[in-house]
Amino acid sequence: MPTRGCHPKGQVVIPEEVRNEPGLNEGDRFVVIGQGDAVILKVITPTTLEEFQELLSQARAEAKRAGVKKADLKSAIAKSGATRSDDQGDPQYQRYNFALSVFLTLLTLHI
To answer: Which of 31, 60, 83, 105 is most buried, most CB within 10 Å of its CB?
Structure first.
C-alpha cells in the first residue's frame, strides 16, 4: 500500500496506480470528506441532462410531499453560500454544484 505525505499547502499526490484504477485524469473534480482519521475522495461524475431532470423531478415531488415552499429553498440555498456561477464559469460544474446544493438542502430539511 503506497503512502504519501501532506505538503504545506494541504496537497497530496495520489499514486499513479491508485489514479489508474478509477481512470482519474488531470482536472477531475472531487468531493472531499473527512471521517475520523480517514479522508474520502469521491469523484464528481457529471450527470446527463436526462439524469439531472429526473433527480430534479424526484426532489420536487419530495419537497411538495413535505410541504416545502420555494421561499424555504431560496433561504436555505442562500444560507449555504451556493451560487449558480461557481468555479471558473464551467456550466456543467455550475449545474452540478447548484443541484448538489439543492439536494443537500432538501436532505437538511429531512425530506
So the answer is: 105
**Burial class, 36, CB count within 10 angstroms (exposed 0-12 / middle 13-18 / buried 19+):** exposed
Instruction: Decide if pLDDT at 25 tops 80.
Output: yes
Q: Angle CA(29)–CA(35)–CA(40) in degrees, nearest 5? A: 25
If one counts the domains in the chain, the total is 2
**Burial (Cβ within 10 Å: 0-12, 13-18, ≥19) of residue 74:** exposed
More confident position, 54 or 83: 54
| Grid cell digits, residue 91 | 456550466
Assigned C-alpha cell, 87: 468555479
pLDDT band at 111 (very low <50, low <70, confident <90, very high): very low
Distance, in Å, from the CA atom of 105 to the CA atom of 111, rounded to the nearest integer, reads 9
Based on the domain organization, do 64 and 80 belong to the same domain? yes
Residue 105 has a CB neighbour count (10 Å cut-off) of 22
Residues 56 and 103 in one domain: yes
* Three cell numbers written together for 55: 433527480
